[in-house]
Design brief:
By secondary structure, the chain is an all-alpha fold. It is built from ten helices and two strands. It has a single domain, classed as Hypothetical protein af1432 (Orthogonal Bundle). Strands 1-2 form a two-stranded antiparallel sheet. A hairpin with a 2-residue loop joins β1 and β2. Pfam families: HD.
Length: 192
């Protein structure tokens, strides 16, 4: 599977920032830096690849305001460019808990699009990079990295609890433990 070079990814993000300026651009940059740091601490992971995948995870926002649809827009855009691995991350980054109803925003997809997304997420077997970008997406404020737990609480304060809040949190904590064990240190130690 293919993904862009760092130079290509930065160019794509800069173009997207001109098309649809907003804090999402800085969020992607912070997610990329977090992914780079974590992957660089984990044996067998490619920190450049992690950086690129983090940099482009929300690239679907280049097409304008949108909510869940940005995942599909990014997927289609990356596929058209021949970057299958980046396309995959565009879809998987929002779903550590494999249920499209666990998305933290509005479902602005057509029924057919939502059906495709539901099927794709159910069928895909997440790898280390899917999990890494899920974690880094949660940790990335436009102003810099934050503790995963802080963001989880903020989302609940804003959106409220649902029947999938706890299972979703459990998935995030599993992902966090996975990378802490792989890196042989805590995320707090990595991001002092």
């Amino acid at each position: 599977m293919r993904y862009p070079t760092i130079e290509e990814a930065e160019k794509l993000l800069n173009e997207a920032a001109e098309m649809n300026p907003g804090e999402w651009v800085a969020h992607n940059q912070v997610a990329a830096l977090c992914a780079n740091i974590i992957a660089g601490s984990c044996p067998g992971m490619d920190e450049k690849k992690a950086y690129v995948l983090g940099l482009l995870h929300d690239i679907g926002r280049r097409f304008g305001p949108g909510d869940l649809k940005h995942t599909l827009d990014g997927y289609k855009f990356m596929l058209e460019m021949g970057f299958e691995e980046s396309a995959r991350i565009c879809l998987t980054h929002s779903f550590p808990f494999k249920d499209i109803h666990s998305y933290n925003g509005q479902n602005d997809c057509q029924a057919k699009e939502a059906g495709f997304l539901k099927s794709y997420i159910a069928a895909v077997e997440y790898d280390e990079y899917d999990k890494l970008i899920q974690l880094c997406d949660l940790m990335a404020y436009p102003s810099g990295p934050c503790a995963m737990e802080k963001k989880l609480v903020e989302v609940v304060m804003k959106k409220g609890f649902s029947e999938i809040t706890i299972p979703k949190w459990e998935e995030y904590f599993k992902i966090k433990r996975f990378f802490e064990e792989k890196a042989n240190c805590t995320l707090d130690e990595l991001f002092k």
